[in-house]
Amino acid sequence: MDKAAIDIQKLEGIFDSMVNVMDQSKNDIFMISEQSRRSFESMQRELILVKEDISRVITEGDHLEEMTRHSRRRLADVSKNFVNYSEQEVRKAYEVANDLLVRLSVNRMEEKQLRIQRDDLDRRLAELLETIERADQLVNQVSTVVTYLTSDLKDVGEALETARHKQDFAIRIIQAQEEERKRVSREIHDGPAQMMASVLIRSGLIEKVYEQKGPKQALEEFKGLKEMVRNSLYEVRRIIYDLRPMAIDDLGVVPTLKKYLSTLMEYEPDVHIHFQSIGEDRRFESSFEIAVFRLVQESVTNAIKHGNSRDVWVKVEWLRETMNAIVKDNGSGFDQNEVKEKSFGIIGMKERIDLLKGDFKIISAVGKGTSVFFKIPINPDSIGK
């Protein structure tokens, strides 16, 4: 017995050491990710300034080119009618033409250098983004293992007896938790965090615009800044609501959708959403109801955010064996031959439909809006009692 106890203590010591090393590795990877993210954001700001410089240099170049053409015509006239001009006028025409030619050459060289700098920044940004994504993936994987070990195998002696039966289930749950945390983190980073960074940059530009172009142009920039802040606030509220629509557990799909769409119209006063539910709606398992809600939510969000729709029609039809849903908008639509294969919204909807063993179809064309169709079989076992 004493020998067995000593062996378990040694195993627990090895286990604790392994967990500490993995936890430190996770922190190191996280630091690399954060440093890369800060470099990425700094490089993005630098890229904005470079693009502004390119725009300025191109404008100046176009002006210099026009002046150069004018000076050449002047020089040609002077050369042709040499006797009609004084020596000073001839010399001045040559000097002006030569000066403009030099300035234009310098301008073109500056433009070329700025373009090289822009392309280099684009390349480095792509590499940094790849590094960030890889680091996030590694953090996620290590966190899954560490969480599993610390939560389920802390008492090694007892865990060794039960791990074989619970390992697969526990890992799946933890992976789902980590993926959800990663998704929320990425939404905050790509949404409100990026918007606030842009607000910070743009607020600095407003002062520059005021000094260079006057209060009228600065006011226009300020209006744009106000719109960015409003969008950021909307994204924060959306993320909070997206974490879990609590009403769905108490009320079901249809009442929750009504409340959600009504709230959405409060946030988007220019958007009108027409909702219709046909047939007697029923209660189902929580997983079924939340999946249906998410499908409609994603479709409506895409219609407003990406399609710039002002009218959205949502119809849910309850049949004996299936539940059908249609989300239609009058927005900008898109070319289905150029669908973004890596669109996480569409991928997420397809995955939910696959889990529910349903059918999913999108019909869209540029300038003709988008229609999204869902057909989900109703399993009698999933109907709430």
Tell me the overall shape.
Answer: extended
Distance between the termini: 53 Å
Helix content: over 70%
Radius of gyration, whole Å:
31 Å
Average pLDDT confidence is 76
Unreliable stretches, pLDDT < 50, 5 or more residues?
1-6, 159-171
* DSSP strand tally: 5
Q: Tally the helices: what do you get?
A: 8
For the biggest β-sheet, the strand order reads: 1-2-3-5-4
Structural class: alpha+beta
Coiled coil: 111-138
Pfam family, one: DegS
Subcellular location: Cytoplasm
Function: Member of the two-component regulatory system DegS/DegU, which plays an important role in the transition growth phase.
How do the strands and helices of this protein lay out in sequence?
Layout: H1 2-80, H2 87-152, H3 156-213, H4 215-243, H5 247-251, H6 253-267, E1 272-278, H7 286-305, E2 311-318, E3 322-329, H8 344-355, E4 359-364, E5 370-377
Parallel strand pairs: 1-2
Antiparallel strand pairs: 2-3, 3-5, 4-5
Please characterize this protein's 3D structure.
With 385 residues, the protein is α+β, with helices and mostly antiparallel strands. A five-stranded mixed sheet has the order 1-2-3-5-4, with helices on one face. Mean pLDDT is 76; it is low at 1-6 and 159-171. The chain has helices spanning 2-80, 87-152, 156-213, 215-243, 247-251, 253-267, 286-305, 344-355, and strands spanning 272-278, 311-318, 322-329, 359-364, 370-377. Helix 2 (87-152) runs antiparallel to helix 3, helix 3 (156-213) packs antiparallel against helix 4 (215-243) and helix 6 packs parallel to helix 7 (286-305). The relative contact order is 0.06. Helix 7 links the parallel strand 1 (272-278) and strand 2 (311-318).
